[in-house]
């Protein structure tokens, strides 16, 4: 059985959990990370030298880095409906999979630490305002893309890209900041909420 190491509140762990739900992959999850077993322990570092969750073990195969894990899972467990073999279709999915950690995650880092985590090190009003503006700009990019497709982030069909992006959308709505009116994002949020895996691991009250 697939073993998943990482606490369920982690957005990157939830990518893996939601992917497992979509593919009906049975798994066992263990709590690792802040507040649980330490990722700085020799046991964990032997699996991931970066000391970050999630990590999976699939038999004798170990893998870390959340987007690499979900790509592996769809390749290993018959997920071609989420990640097709056609080079162009896959490239459209990959560009949004890669945009999420490289651009979208980066823009929310200060607002999340300030408004959700309540970190005393992230309470500068100017830095918070700049972070909120950057986050809003990226959400406007997403809104325009969803308006273009009329459905999901890479096209008309739900794909692997919607898992990290959908979790990011949940984080957007769960963070207490001024949200510009983004009708396509709002409709996307409701569309994703028809999927049982999203209600378990996305729109479940966890930012």
TrEMBL record:
Domain GST N-terminal: 1-81
Keywords: Transferase
Keyword Repeat: no
Pfam families documented for this protein: GST_N_2
PROSITE patterns, per database record: GST_CTER (PS50405), GST_NTER (PS50404)
InterPro entries documented for this protein: Glutathione-S-Trfase_C-like, Glutathione-S-Trfase_C_sf, Glutathione_S-Trfase, Glutathione_S-Trfase_N, Thioredoxin-like_sf
Keyword flag Transferase: yes
Domain GST C-terminal: 86-207
CDD domains the UniProt entry points to: GST_C_2, GST_N_2
Entry GO MF terms: transferase activity
Source organism superkingdom: Bacteria
Family: Belongs to the GST superfamily.
Name of the protein: Glutathione S-transferase
Gene source species: Pseudomonas shahriarae
């Amino acid at each position: 059985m697939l073993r998943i190491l990482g606490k369920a509140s982690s957005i990157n762990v939830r990518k893996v959990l939601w992917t497992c739900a979509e593919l009906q992959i049975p798994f066992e999850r263990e709590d690792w990370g802040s507040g649980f077993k330490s990722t700085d322990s020799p046991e964990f570092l032997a699996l991931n030298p970066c000391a970050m969750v999630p990590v999976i073990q699939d038999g004798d195969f170990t893998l870390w880095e959340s987007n690499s894990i979900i790509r592996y899972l769809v390749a290993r467990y018959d997920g071609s409906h989420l990640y097709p073999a056609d080079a162009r279709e896959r490239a459209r999915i990959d560009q949004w999979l890669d945009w999420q950690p490289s651009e979208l995650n980066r823009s929310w880092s200060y607002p999340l630490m300030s408004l959700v985590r309540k970190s005393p090190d992230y309470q500068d009003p100017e830095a918070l305002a700049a972070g909120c503006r950057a986050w809003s700009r990226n959400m406007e990019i997403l809104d325009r893309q969803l308006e273009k497709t009329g459905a999901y982030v890479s096209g008309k069909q739900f794909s692997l890209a919607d898992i990290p992006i959908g979790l990011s959308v949940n984080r957007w709505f769960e963070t207490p900041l001024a949200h510009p009116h983004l009708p396509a994002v709002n409709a996307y949020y409701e569309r994703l909420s028809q999927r049982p895996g999203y209600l378990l691991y996305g729109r479940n009250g966890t930012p």
